[in-house]
Amino acid sequence: MASEIVDSVEMLRRLVAFDTTSRNSNLELIKYVQGYLDGHGIASKLVPSADGTKANLFATVGPSVKGGVVLSGHTDVVPVDGQPWVTDPWTLSLKDGKYHGRGTCDMKAFYAIALAMLPQFLKAKLKKPIHLP
User: Fold this and answer.
1) Residue 90 and residue 101 in contact, taking contact as beta carbons nearer than 8 Å
2) 3 has pLDDT over 80
3) 1 in a structural domain
4) N or C: more exposed end of the chain, with fewer CB within 10 A?
């Protein structure tokens, strides 16, 4: 994936589209993020679960020194079973000035913002690294 500039709303749209319900795999989302990071020259380490159905991804932006800031979260979402969704939970939608979609508040929007900020992180003269687990 080439170095792509994606704003936070577009990134959120992409992340919400991955059904990372806790009972399902998150590997498609993780591999998408890994490709996005790779496209910006950021190496990452994939850490699979014991059964290989899920994974965590660790990456560092900035200097290779001790310390820094950790932007940590999770990619799984709770099931939508039995919930009265009036929109597709896997499609980002805007209604009354608010975005709706599974994970928009917890935690996909957090990751969308962090990933959208990646080009600015890379341009900044960081004295301490930013870690993305």
Assistant:
1) yes
2) no
3) no
4) N
Domain harbouring 105, CATH code: 3.40.630.10
pTM passes above 0.90: yes
Torsion from C-alpha of 109, 101, 51, 74, nearest 10 degrees: 20
Instruction: Report how far apart, in Å, the C-alpha atoms of 31 and of each of 25, 86, 97, 121 are.
Output: 11, 29, 31, 21
Q: 94: exposed, middle or buried (C-beta count within 10 Å: 0-12, 13-18, 19+)? A: exposed
- Total number of domains in the chain: 1
Residue 33: give the domain boundaries.
8-132
Q: Is residue 127 part of a domain?
A: yes
Asked if residue 30 belongs to a domain, the reply is yes
Query: Is 95 within the bounds of a domain?
Result: yes
Q: Report how far residue 109's alpha carbon sits from residue 106's, in angstroms, rounded to the nearest whole number.
A: 7
pLDDT tens, position by position, 23-55: 999 999 999 999 999 999 999 999 999 999 999
